[in-house]
Specification:
CATH class of the largest domain: Alpha Beta
CATH topology of the largest domain: TIM Barrel
Largest sheet: 8 strands, parallel, barrel
Distance between the termini: 42 Å
CATH architecture of the largest domain: Alpha-Beta Barrel
CATH superfamily of the largest domain: Glycosidases
Structural class: alpha/beta
Bound molecules: 2-acetamido-2-deoxy-beta-D-glucopyranose
Number of strands: 27
Strand order of the largest sheet: 4-5-8-9-10-11-12-13
């Protein structure tokens, strides 16, 4: 494709336009470049140029046009297709989160296989000629369960997450000692394609504002990745957040979406980073979805216009998201804005590359903008993914949950006078059943209730195996019940995803308080942590063994 680069602007500044410079200045510049090349021990370098407000890649002014993709939200067989479509959209770079809790499911137990094979993903980006901006957290937000922090951190209930709390730092350090040595060979300086690494994420939005914590992370990242790699932070444009989220030694970048005056927004970055490249690390192409609300929608024209404004300034940009994907299994997060708001399974994000992997009108609008600033790769955009009509799938009932507790909870229940949280019984995700007996006859309706913020997040109530209704976090907190002494009361508690953003990130699950009958706490509970996923696997005996689907294509 023939592309006009007439409006090509990169890192505007005196050094950027040699034609306008005096010959002496040009000679000086060349001399400085030669000297800096000689001084540099490695031919591959990626640095900040504080004079020309640029990045320098191998000593040459550079700015990136990047897009976010999360390997954990894309099935591994689709990685190549999505990355290729990003490349063909004109992106030079992809920005990638590493969700800690996806790799260290239990303390000291690591998984980097299959869809968790981060290095295979990095190799694929390199093969397709893409650079990588890595965001290894340890906290990532990302609308991911608990912002990427492992739920097992809450086994110590008073832990202060994202702070200098020694218990938190010990867990972080042992994780970083596993993760970062895998990353180091992929750094640009070492022959790989990772040009920069983000430390924490939007830390300024967290109430703790603990510089000791950021300083500790800086030390660990430096110790494990070396002194050359470019480390940076990302925060919103709010002055308060830039104050708490930035640190000497970490290059400060910002994030904002379309629809505002880009020059004014970048002034926020200039207040904390007076020189160096302008960077928007999260330019929002769309937005996340909450259960019960409409699908997010951001107009393609708006996104394209804002992108053009950013590129016109010579800034570097990462589009968040370029391809959103799917929150598989229990990995969706939640927000807390006046009330608990769980994130949907889909993470389509109204992104340029849809959840199904299809190029959208927004993708082509973005590609058109990019083509005004740099050449697009030669060749066609790969097509939308093929779709199949599977027809209706009839779901058959195999068993009543209450009849198969021995299968779902082979180790048997835990006895406790009063309810225990998921974390107290070391169940990270999914469902826990709480069972007790009515202490007396209740001929007239009595009130079953739980205090505010104690049902996390949903409790399905059964009495004598009959469904009574649902208690819900920030929703209905009482039910009227009748029954006889000794009748079994069951409450099936569902974890709908831990909060990923804000002050309430220590989001305990299950029954966090007492359940009362006419204000008297019920006691003598049996607590069944349910292993729903393992129970569905082929080795499972009994009624839950999956049957072959009739008509499954061979
Ligand atoms: C954006 O703000 C700058 C500085 O305040 C101003 O000079 C410029 O005209 C504004 N641009 C638009 C499109 O409003
Ligand atoms: C956090 O949750 C508590 C209840 O557990 C609530 O009182 C408080 O307002 C929440 N804080 C924020 C910042 O949402
Ligand atoms: C539950 O009730 C018992 C008895 O009143 C009380 O000792 C206990 O602290 C309560 N638990 C919670 C979490 O409020």
């Amino acid at each position: 494709m023939v592309v006009s680069t007439s409006s090509f602007v990169l890192c505007p500044g005196p050094a950027e336009h040699p034609a306008r410079m005096g010959l002496l200045a040009l000679a000086l510049l060349l001399a400085v470049r030669l000297l800096s090349t000689q001084a540099s021990p490695s031919p591959r370098s990626f640095q900040v140029d504080y004079e020309r407000n640029c990045f320098l890649k191998d000593g040459v002014p550079f700015r990136y046009i990047s897009g976010s993709i999360h390997y954990a939200r894309v099935p591994r067989p689709a990685w190549r297709d999505r990355l290729l479509k990003m490349h063909m959209s004109g992106l030079s770079t992809v920005q990638v989160y590493v969700p800690w809790n996806y790799h260290e499911m239990l303390p000291g137990v690591y998984d980097f296989t299959g869809n968790r094979d981060l290095e295979a993903f990095l190799d694929l980006t390199a093969e397709l000629g893409l650079l990588v901006i890595l965001r290894p957290g340890p906290y990532i937000c990302a609308e991911w369960e608990m912002g990427g922090l492992p739920a097992w951190l809450l086994w110590k209930p008073d832990i202060i997450l994202r702070s200098s709390d020694p218990a938190y730092l010990a867990a972080v350090d042992s994780w970083l000692h596993v993760l970062l040595p895998k990353i180091k060979p992929h750094l640009y300086q070492h022959g790989g394609n990772i040009i920069s690494v983000q430390v924490e994420n939007e830390y300024g939005s967290y109430y703790a504002c603990d510089y000791g914590y950021l300083r500790h992370l800086l030390g660990s990242f430096r110790a494990l990745l070396g002194s050359e790699v470019l480390l940076f932070t990302t925060d919103s444009t709010r002055a308060e957040e830039l104050r708490c989220g930035t640190l000497q030694g970490l290059y400060a970048t910002i994030d904002f979406g379309p629809g505002s005056n880009v020059t004014e927004l970048f002034d926020a970055q200039r207040r904390v980073e007076p020189k160096g490249p302008l960077v928007n690390s999260e330019y929002y192409t769309g937005w996340l979805d909450y259960w019960g609300e409409a699908h997010a929608s951001t107009s393609a024209a708006w996104v394209a216009q804002g992108l053009e404004d950013i590129l016109q300034l010579g800034a570097s940009v990462n589009m968040y998201m370029f391809h959103g994907g799917t929150n598989f299994a229990y990995w969706s997060g939640a927000d807390y804005k006046d009330q608990y708001k769980p994130v949907t399974t889909s993470y389509d994000y109204d992104a340029p590359l849809s959840e199904a992997g299809d190029p959208t009108e927004k993708l082509f609008a973005i590609r058109m903008v990019i083509s005004k600033f740099q050449p697009l790769p030669v060749g066609p955009m790969p097509p939308a993914t093929p779709k199949y009509a599977y027809g209706w799938v009839a779901l058959r009932k195999y068993a009543d949950l209450l009849d198969v507790l021995d299968v779902l909870c082979p180790s048997g229940p835990i006895q406790s006078q009063f309810p225990l949280t998921f974390e107290a019984i070391k169940q990270a995700h999914g469902f826990v059943l709480y069972r007790t007996q009515l202490p007396r006859d209740i001929p007239d309706p009595a009130t079953l209730s739980a205090p505010p913020h104690s049902i996390c997040d949903r409790g399905y109530v059964m009495l004598h195996k009959e469904y009574q209704g649902m208690l819900e976090r920030d929703g209905q907190m009482t039910l009227r019940v009748t029954g006889k002494a000794g009748d079994t009361l069951d409450m099936l508690l569902e974890n709908m995803g831990r909060i990923s953003f804000g002050a309430n990130v220590s989001d305990f699950k299950g029954l966090l308080g007492n359940v009362s009958l006419d204000s008297i706490p019920l006691n003598n509970w049996l607590i069944y942590p349910l292993a729903i996923d393992t129970a569905g696997q082929p080795s499972t005996p009994g009624p839950l063994r999956p049957l072959a689907l009739p008509g499954t294509p061979s």
